[in-house]
Amino acid sequence: MKKVAILGPSTFSEEATRHFLKDDFIYISYKLISEVFNATVAGETDLSVIPIENTLEGSVHLHVDWLVHEVNLPIRAEWVFPIDMNLIGFANKEGQDEGSNPYQHIRKVLSHHVVPAQCSRFMKKYLSGAEFEQVSSTAEGVRLVSALQDPAVAAIGTAIASTNYGVPMLEKEIQDHKDNMTRFLLVGEEAPELPTSADRKTTILVTLPEDYPGALHQVLSAFAWRRINLSKIESKPTKKKLGTYYFYIDIADSLDSVLLPSAIQEIEAIGCQVRILGSYPSYSYIS
């Protein structure tokens, strides 16, 4: 069976990956996203799973930068998974007065850096007096809480982490919006066998020529007159020269289609550099 690198264990990445890929793969957990990418680059695993975008926070910029600047691993699939944030920790041994904040005993909250933006309402209401400390993953926060056994330190993470580390869930689904979703990418040199999907995407990077006024307009026009839908376009610095940018573009079409290859050729003809990150099946969330 193929090996898949994930952030983990007991993370949202693990929950999402096991839900999508089932038991047909061997899952190997790493604490840092750099380790996830490098495991596949080094051949320790066949594929990596990358959280790339969230409903509330948008793109996960660190992960996009790794995909673009640090490695050259083609995108093989994408899928969407719901993210339920839970407050995980130990109840106050001294108890609380009736009607008071039940979590005022918590003085520190451990979790991944993306969490505060997704749970801002709950944290403002119940955890405003607590210090937030960033750790490498939501699961690492729960592991540390389990090791400390201190009611004053809590974590925000997954239900599976609560179970695996033996720490109670104090409050379920504390995210600001119940339709909080994260998009995951499967990347690697070899395309795995996956269920058939009617939806296809292609992701490209476009770097504009410096001496071509109106180049971005012409790039967009190449897609527009062919009625090719762009599901996402985002500008990012090239990190090579101040004021130069590339455009990260998700296209709701396949490279096997008739029109998309000709649109890319038109863009290259005006002097743009085009890098194809992948053409792959896209899966919406299925419960």
UniProtKB/TrEMBL annotation:
Q: Boundaries of each ACT domain copy?
A: 204-281
This enzyme's EC code(s) = 4.2.1.51
PROSITE patterns named among the record's database cross-references: ACT (PS51671), PREPHENATE_DEHYDR_1 (PS00857), PREPHENATE_DEHYDR_3 (PS51171)
Ranges of residues in domain Prephenate dehydratase: 3-189
Per UniProt, the enzyme's principal EC class comes to lyase
Question: One of this protein's Pfam families, by short name?
Answer: ACT
User: What keywords is this UniProt entry annotated with?
Assistant: Amino-acid biosynthesis, Aromatic amino acid biosynthesis, Lyase, Phenylalanine biosynthesis
Per its record, the protein catalyses: prephenate + H(+) = 3-phenylpyruvate + CO2 + H2O
The pathway this protein participates in, as annotated, is: Amino-acid biosynthesis; L-phenylalanine biosynthesis; phenylpyruvate from prephenate: step 1/1
The keyword Lyase appears for this protein = yes
Q: Which Gene3D superfamilies does the annotation name?
A: 3.30.70.260, Periplasmic binding protein-like II
CDD domains per the UniProt record, alphabetical: ACT_CM-PDT, PBP2_Sa-PDT_like
Recorded protein name is Prephenate dehydratase
Source organism per entry reads Paenibacillus marchantiophytorum
Which gene specifies this protein's sequence? Answer: pheA
